[in-house]
Amino acid sequence: MTTNESDSQPKTKKPSDSAFKQQRLPAWQPILTAGTVLPTFFVIGIAFIPIGVGLLYFSDEVKEYDKDYTNCYSINPAHNGQKCMDIINANPKENCQCKIDFTLNNDFNGKVYMYYGLTNFYQNHRRYVKSRDDTQLLGQLSDVVSTDCEPFAYVDTKNGTKAVAPCGAIANSLFNDDLSLFSHKHKKDVPLLRTGIAWPSDKNIKFKNPPGNLKDEFSKYEKPKNWKKPVYELDPTNDDNNGFKNEDLIVWMRTAALPTFRKLYRRVDHSQEGFLDGLMSGNYTLNINYTYQVSAFEGTKKMILSTTSLLGGKNPFLGIAYIVVGCVCLLLGIVLLIIHIKCSKSTSDIINVNPTTPYQ
After folding, report:
1. Per-10-residue mean pLDDT for the chain, 360 residues long?
2. Lower Cβ count inside 10 Å, N or C end of the chain?
């Protein structure tokens, strides 16, 4: 009987004699000296400060105006001058219209965008972020939806339990105030576009409508509890902007990272006469169909008008951060240079070491 040669050799846990396992691979370890550290600080400082100034310049070029309308008053005489917030809290199905006059002191040249802003709304909560059915949003409707949508997955009706489309807490809390602008200078409404506000990747890849007639397909399912319209009627002006392809829905479904956020609501149509060059200074009226409740989470809401620059919207933080880092690096470089000149030994003193050199 023969045995394998490998079986006869004693087993060992010693690593193989390779450069990798024995850590003999070539390595580079920088030696931090004044000659390498000081130039680095000065280069970073000199480079970052102009970049920060440029970022601040582009941010300041952006014109922005916001108007808080949380506590606006109803224009309906039957409401006796009550706040729309109180009326909606008492009866969520009640319709409440209000308006706010404001003045733009500067011309908003270029493309102008309308946003809505919310505060104290935590869209980044883990359970809230998960509360959706991505398979359903791809147009694959089913009577069985994801368990992540609970408790906004099914609704009890007279004919039994029906699935909700779209299901989940995100869709159920969709922002549904109607905002419009009236220009007193042109004596007409500012033309606003409801399309072109969502990311193309979201609209073309993540959200798709089921095949067939939208009304027939979605009529088999219930709308979310807090919605006043079914998903196939979200945009009465454009049939192609309904269902899961509705851009208001798509924008809302991309959850915000912070509790205070803004989302794109409309684009000013600059092809219309009077608005070709932007939104001119003058008196305007913000007309609001007030339906979205914010008192439940002690939040506020506002309308924001803004232009853009090469770097996007108004964001002075990045420019300030670059300037601060650049100044700190320059200051450190100067301090370390002074310390190096006053306290360091010369190169000849370091090289010429002999037995009589005093130890320090």
Report:
1. 55 82 84 86 95 94 94 93 92 91 94 96 96 94 92 88 94 96 95 95 93 91 92 92 95 96 96 93 96 93 93 89 96 92 67 59
2. N
CA separation for the pair 233, 248 (Å, rounded): 12
**Paired tokens of 49:** 């400060």
Instruction: Report the 10 Å Cβ neighbour count for 248.
Output: 21
Contact partners, residue 280, CB within 8 Å, separation at least 6: 104, 107, 108, 185
Name the strand (E) or helix (H) holding 86: helix 84-90
Give this prediction's pTM: 0.82
Retrieve residue 60's tokens. Answer: 């300041």
Sign of CA dihedral 255, 260, 261, 266: positive
- Which 3 state secondary structure label does DSSP give 245? helix
Report phi then psi at 271, rounded to 5: -90, -5
Question: 3-class DSSP state for residue 111?
Answer: coil
Please state, in angstroms and rounded to a whole number, the distance separating the CA atoms of residues 75 and 82.
9
- Taking a C-beta distance cutoff of 8 angstroms, is the pair 168, 149 a contact? yes
